[in-house]
Amino acid sequence: MSIIMNLARFSFLALLSLAAAPVAAQIFTIPPGAYRTAAAYHRRQPQIPGVDATYPDKRGNVVVVVPRGSQSTKLRVSPDSVWGYVSEKGRTFRIYRGDEFRLEHADTLCVYTRQASITSTGLRPSVSGQQSYYFSLGLNGLIFPLTVTYLRELFTASNPAFVAALSEMKFGQSLADLDRHTGLFRVNTLYRESLKGH
To answer: How many independent structural domains does the chain possess?
Structure first.
């Protein structure tokens, strides 16, 4: 009888945790809208809250869909006046020098994706399928293609352990390889491991 009771309790707790999961997920999502600064994004406080946001419209503006009772209206703002926006699906996009970069990982070393494009710099970003990968130091840092060359230039003086780890990558490994268990890109894992000795 006690086995049946324990099984019933376990089943009840399992169902309760499954029912609570969507609520918990909603609590930690970033609200849709336009964010004027990275600090506002970090605090989850959009300056123009809405139910969706997109970029660009025909005039090159960020468009935020704002509910007004049973209707909704579209507010347009200049991309120069915002750090970025969050869409209705919870995807974060940073606007940098007129281009949008999808934020994939926010940390000291942020990772972004963008549709693959031809660069005129001669340095090719890491490409996976039709996406190019980029990075920045923090949410306000300059955005660079995610390449060993750029990482070495930025970290040789400040984090030689990270630069050494980049040199030890095996053939066929990519900085943008995603570890499904940790949710981290290889570049983030190498960066975090390089800080353990400090």
So the answer is: 2
Where in the chain does DSSP place strands (E)? Answer: 33-35, 48-49, 52-54, 62-68, 71-77, 84-86, 92-96, 99-105, 109-115, 127-128, 131-137, 144-145, 178-179, 184-185
Q: How far is CA 101 from the centre of its chain?
A: 9
Rg (CA), the chain: 21
What length does the chain have?
198
102 and 196 assigned to the same domain: yes
Residue 1 lies in a domain: no
Cβ atoms 134, 143 nearer than 8 A: yes
User: Does residue 158 share a domain with residue 130?
Assistant: yes
pLDDT of residue 23 exceeding 90: no
Q: Which amino acid is at 149?
A: T
Instruction: Tell me the per-residue pLDDT of 40-73, one tens digit each, with 9 for 90 and over.
Output: 999 999 999 999 999 999 999 999 999 998 899 9
Provide CB contacts within 8 A for 158, sequence distance 6+: none
How far is it, in rounded angstroms, from Cα 20 to Cα 60? 40
- pTM value? 0.77
Tokens read off for 54:
């997109």
